[in-house]
Amino acid sequence: MTSLVEQSKKSAAYQAVDDNLKPSYKIIGIGSGSTVVYVAERIGQLSNKSQFTCIPTGFQSKQLILSNGLKLGSIEEFPNIDITFDGADEIDSDLNVIKGGGACLMQEKLVASCSKKFIIVADFRKKSPTGQLGVNWRKGVPIEIIPASYTKILKELKEFGAVKAEVRSGGSAKAGPVITDNGMFIIDADFGAIPPAEVSKLHNKIKFLTGVVDVGLFVNMVEKTYIGEENGSVSTMG
Ligand code: 5RP
């Protein structure tokens, strides 16, 4: 039986594709995570799917494109993307989002920044109940870093007010750090609730630290969000 969360991911993804994928589009960005699975599935059902070239945001995304019979392209060949669909870990009232729960934030941001439209698809747990980031998503802001810089950056994040900051591990003491598709580490830094007006400032401070590759705060990038609600409906913002 499909769970409520799973059904809400599917409804949000299907509606986002149905509302936004115009026949004139050629290049589509495909994000990462468990909600975007349904975006690729929906695009794969279209009779005109062969007209689209899909740009991945990581290894999982590439597999999704191929397994749904879609044409795979690269960001190097196609830096002008018509539309990108991606998931989110939390969404605030200004449509700023936390991303990187799946450690793909760098390529996700690269593809989003090359896109004319950036659409977020998510289940009901991702909308912040207070309109601030860091409320439901308590794992912290994901930050991709160069491995050798982790001691320095952990110290600097604590000076910036992080109540907790740690290198993401593979789940057990033996597993060691998670390695991203770019060969980097991820730090998760918990700053508590971040008011929408402060997100950009925090992003810029972290991004400026030597050793940081990119930050999982996406500021002023999202055009529209599709949220699958608990009652089965899909709500939109933007
Ligand atoms: C991966 C991401 C994902 O898009 C984000 O974690 C949401 O994933 P899901 O759709 O599984 O909840 O940013 O780096």
Automatic annotation (TrEMBL):
Catalysed reactions listed for this entry = aldehydo-D-ribose 5-phosphate = D-ribulose 5-phosphate
The record, for InterPro entries, names:
NagB/RpiA_transferase-like (IPR037171), Ribose5P_isomerase_type_A (IPR004788)
Per the UniProt record, which EC number(s) apply here?
Answer: 5.3.1.6
What class does this enzyme belong to in the EC scheme? isomerase
Tell me the domain of life: Eukaryota
Annotated GO biological processes are: D-ribose metabolic process; pentose-phosphate shunt, non-oxidative branch; pyridoxine biosynthetic process
The entry's keywords: Isomerase
Pathway listed for it?
A: Carbohydrate degradation; pentose phosphate pathway; D-ribose 5-phosphate from D-ribulose 5-phosphate (non-oxidative stage): step 1/1
Q: Which GO terms describe its cellular component?
A: cytoplasm
The signal peptide here is none
GO terms for MF? ribose-5-phosphate isomerase activity
UniProt lists the family membership as follows: Belongs to the ribose 5-phosphate isomerase family.
What name does UniProt use for this protein?
A: Ribose-5-phosphate isomerase
Q: Which organism is it from?
A: Pachysolen tannophilus NRRL Y-2460
